[in-house]
Design goal:
Blueprint (H helix, E strand, L loop, with lengths): L1 E6 L4 E9 L4 E10 L4 H16 L6 E7 L5 H18 L3 E4 L1 H5 L5 E9 L2 E8 L2 E2 L4 E3 L1 H10 L4 E3 L1 H5 L1 H4 L2 E2 L8 H13 L29
Parallel strand pairs: 1-4, 4-5, 6-10, 10-11
Antiparallel strand pairs: 1-2, 2-3, 6-7, 7-8, 7-9
Helix pairs in contact: 1-2
């Protein structure tokens, strides 16, 4: 079963094609570009590129897997709208995966932290791939206290590197961003079971930077 994987919850814009079989998940092609200001410009060409590289056509797709975040409003929305649109157009199911879960799919106990801007991080703690805390957005100093309480000694993700001194734990070099293979693996059981498609609900965790005014200002004649 051929699955399109997309994630735009971080500055990395990711698209990949994964083959999901009864006992394995294999990434056949993938593209990743890191640019926090160009999610909209980069994702569609990346999807076209991975299809072309694998010699596949859109109608060959069995399902769409999308990273749900948490992530900044604009970039995350690009990935989810793209995934939902492709799924609807092709009449194939869409499955969502927490983007932090893809980074936390590792052995041992690890703090996953991605950059949330505003000097904050999106974070969660995992043990052997199982999430121990709910995704949250906090100041690095707050996260450091929680990590210490939970006995975490290793961190991963872009936020872990950016705020390594404050977090007070060793930051692993890779991966910095959610791996396509892990996103596909986390949705593989649903793909194999041909589960009903899901509404792709983003994990924003906070309000967007731009909000509509709640009160209209009077206009002077």
């Amino acid at each position: 079963m051929l699955v399109l994987v997309v994630d735009s919850a971080t500055p990395a814009v990711t698209a990949a094609l994964a083959e999901v079989s009864d006992d394995a998940v294999v990434v056949r092609s993938q593209r990743r570009a890191v640019d926090a200001r160009a999610h909209g410009e980069l994702l569609a060409p990346a999807v076209e590129a991975v299809l072309a590289e694998a010699g596949a056509r859109p109608r060959d797709l069995t399902a769409i897997v999308a990273g749900l975040g948490p992530g900044p409003f604009t970039g995350l929305r690009v990935g989810l709208v793209t995934a939902a649109s492709i799924g609807q157009t092709l009449d194939v199911p869409t499955y969502g995966v927490c983007s932090l879960d893809a980074l936390g799919l590792l052995d041992g106990k690890v703090l996953v932290a991605t950059d949330a801007r505003r000097r904050e991080v999106y974070w969660a703690v995992y043990e052997d791939g199982t999430r121990l805390t709910e995704p949250a957005v906090d100041l690095p100093a707050t996260v450091a206290g929680r990590a210490a309480e939970l006995g975490v000694a290793v961190a991963i993700g872009e936020g872990a590197h950016k705020y390594a001194e404050v977090l007070g734990v060793a930051a692993r070099d890779e991966p910095l961003y959610p791996p396509a293979a892990a996103l596909a693996a986390l949705a593989a059981d649903r793909v194999r079971a041909k589960a009903p498609g899901e509404r792709l609900t983003p994990l924003y965790l906070r309000r967007p930077d731009a909000v509509a005014q709640s009160v209209r200002k009077p206009v002077l004649p």
